[in-house]
Amino acid sequence: MPEKYKQFDIEDYVLGLCNTTEQKQRVEHELTLYKSHAMMDVLQFLKYMVDTLRENNIVWGVGRGSSVASYVLYLLGVHKVDSIKYNLDPTEFLR
Question: Of the N and C termini of the chain, which has fewer Cβ atoms inside 10 Å?
């Protein structure tokens, strides 16, 4: 993974994608969970991966499994399921 992604402020990025208070609160909650599981570097890698897929016009799936419970992953583009809209519990992903 390139150094610029290792230094990338993923928290600021995903919070900046929020348009409502509900979205911001959900993202803050999920980021707390990601931190407690020492997974912030995984989010940075996923940002790199999605950017690389997009740059190379590679198509990936809509989403599957417990990952769709994460609104942060939705904002990053890892999947296309809005977990707020479908009221999915983020702890389903980070058990």
Answer: C
